[in-house]
Design brief:
Strand order of the largest sheet: 7-6-5-8-9-11-10-12
Number of strands: 12
Largest sheet: 8 strands, mixed
Helix content: 40-55%
Distance between the termini: 86 Å
Radius of gyration: 28 Å
Structural class: alpha/beta
Order of helices and strands: HHHHHHHHEEEEHEHEHEHEHEHEEHEHH
Strand content: 5-15%
Number of helices: 17
Length: about 525
């Protein structure tokens, strides 16, 4: 055997076709786009599921876990299959099929949630897993095609891995900060599906394997997905950053409107008579506040959460001169307030689009007579508004006779409500709870059903007799507990802190038929 001398050639990756497939720029575009698409699907799927499963830690964890499973599965299988068949045959179908599935996702999830809710988790998992795996397979397939020499393995793999990570970052930022705030989530997914199908067609054309029939079939699936979304149940009047919002007219009251967020009756507003209070918990809020302050006395109030602004409107109508500052995180809900409920600046209600806790920090100490907590929903709770530290900020902005009153929602064992009562007891000198007698421990033999509860706290005593009288006058059927009875009801519940607030685990599931 004679030695080989003078050769500068490097070994070629085994099994790599001589027609290497996509050039460097096309390879970068494929890896970047497919990685970005995976994250768009993940984030938008979380938004689609929120009306049915809640925007909770568990829901977020489930969606992230499924997406990571899809990425791992797709990367593994994509690399394995690329070693067994011509990789050029794989890219187009991966993009095209994933695009078709993505375009169908909004309609499929909404139909399943309405007609076969027991199947929702399975179908949701598949709508994330299938396109996520197919799109994640693109990176190892493209990497295989770009590995023309073993000497540059590290360079090629590192570059494409980096490009994929950058694509995922861009997809995340673009979706969270731009797309969701400007487009309905169904439109995002249908548009993404269309882009993926177009990308699939372009790849097939570049590899000279263009066949019109599969491309046309995939395009028809995308069109079908768009049409199905328009007739699928669960439609919204407005898709905001956080909610699917609808306004429902009251057939029994011409001026009555119900704000429905993510399938839950969130607020009832009588646009002609702000003093009319439909929901029991709002009547309880009014009863407590009217017992704590002189009749007609104007107040400086801060509201954590706005919704339909029912209670700020009530204060403006019954206590002329009241100044209500509202921290509402969802600008889309504020638009609904203006467009559907006639919110006007002259009402004395100033709505700021901001996080409630950040809004509290901006207020001067002792600047408020009243703070109203009404940001908690039946399927999710902004936990950072529940803690001892948050309550300390509430206490800071209240004057010495100020009152904090909050609407809570819990079910089953009421573990979250008990923990929140323990939290308030750590902060305020006087704490009381009002709700259905069975829910607050006044009927020990009855099984608590849960629902709305109202807690109120202050450093000065509130006239509980007057509060109970007002509750009775408004036909709430609610009672009040405080002192030792409240301590017994709290039991061994731990106060919530910024360091320990497992609210999503404490909160019990609700029935969609219940109102906030």
């Amino acid at each position: 055997m004679s030695p080989v001398t003078g050769s500068s050639s490097m070994p070629v990756a085994e099994g790599t076709p001589r027609d290497y497939g996509p050039g460097p720029r096309v390879a970068v575009a494929l890896v970047f786009g497919s990685s970005a698409a995976v994250l768009v699907v993940e984030i938008v799927a979380l938004r689609l599921l929120a009306p049915y499963l809640g925007l909770t830690l568990e829901t977020s964890t489930m969606v992230i876990g499924i997406a990571l499973t899809a990425i791992a599965l797709g990367s593994w299988l994509g690399g394995r299959i690329a070693d067994q068949v011509d990789p050029r045959r794989l890219i187009g179908p991966s993009l095209g099929v994933s695009g078709a599935v993505v375009a169908l996702t909004p309609a499929v999830l909404r139909v399943t949630a309405e007609w076969a809710p027991a199947m929702l988790l399975l179908i949701a998992s598949l709508t994330i897993l299938v396109p996520g795996a197919l799109l994640s397979a693109v990176t190892p397939i493209v990497t295989k095609l770009r590995l023309t020499s073993l000497a540059e393995t590290g360079t090629v793999v590192g570059r494409l891995s980096g490009v994929g990570t950058v694509g995922a970052i861009v997809g995340t930022v673009l979706t969270g900060f731009v797309l969701v705030s400007r487009l309905p989530v169904s439109g995002i997914l249908i548009g993404l599906g269309a882009l993926l199908v177009v990308g699939s067609a372009l790849v097939e054309w570049r590899t000279r394997r263009w066949r019109s029939t599969p491309a046309l079939a995939l395009a028809l699936v995308v069109v079908a997905g768009g049409l199905a979304t328009t007739v699928a149940p669960g439609g919204c009047d407005a898709e905001t950053r956080y909610h699917c919002a609808r306004v429902v007219a009251d057939p029994d009251r011409d001026s009555g409107r119900t704000l429905v967020l993510d399938g839950l009756r969130h607020s009832y507003v009588d646009i002609d008579d702000p003093a009319f209070l439909e929901f029991t918990y709002v009547r309880a809020l009014a009863s407590v506040v009217d017992a704590a302050f002189r009749e007609g006395e104007p107040l400086a109030a801060h509201h954590l959460g706005g919704g339909g602004l029912t209670f700020p409107r009530y204060l403006a109508a019954t206590r002329p001169g009241t100044r209500s500052l509202v921290s509402e995180i969802d600008s889309g809900v504020v638009r609904v307030d203006r467009d559907a409920f006639g919110l006007r600046p002259e009402t004395g209600i100033d709505v700021r689009v901001e996080d409630g806790r950040l809004g509290l920090r901006r207020l001067d100490a002792g600047s408020r007579d009243l703070v109203v907590g009404d940001a908690f929903g039946g399927v999710s709770v902004p936990w950072h508004l529940t803690t001892v530290e948050a309550m300390a900020d509430v206490r800071r902005v209240l004057d010495e006779d100020g009152l904090y009153v909050a609407n809570l929602i819990d079910h089953g064992g009421l573990a979250f409500a008990r923990a929140e009562a323990a939290t308030l007891s750590e902060t305020f000198e006087h704490v009381a709870l009002t709700g259905e007698p069975a829910d607050i421990g006044l009927e020990p033999t009855a099984t608590p059903e849960g629902g709305n509860l109202v807690m109120f706290a202050s450093d000065r005593p509130v006239d509980l007799h007057a509060a109970q009288k007002a509750l009775d006058a408004r036909h709430t059927g609610w009672k009040i507990v405080t002192g030792d009875d409240l301590t017994s009801w709290i039991g061994d519940a731990r106060p919530l802190t910024d360091d320990y607030a497992p609210v999503d685990q404490l909160l019990q599931p609700h029935s969609p038929q219940n109102s906030r």
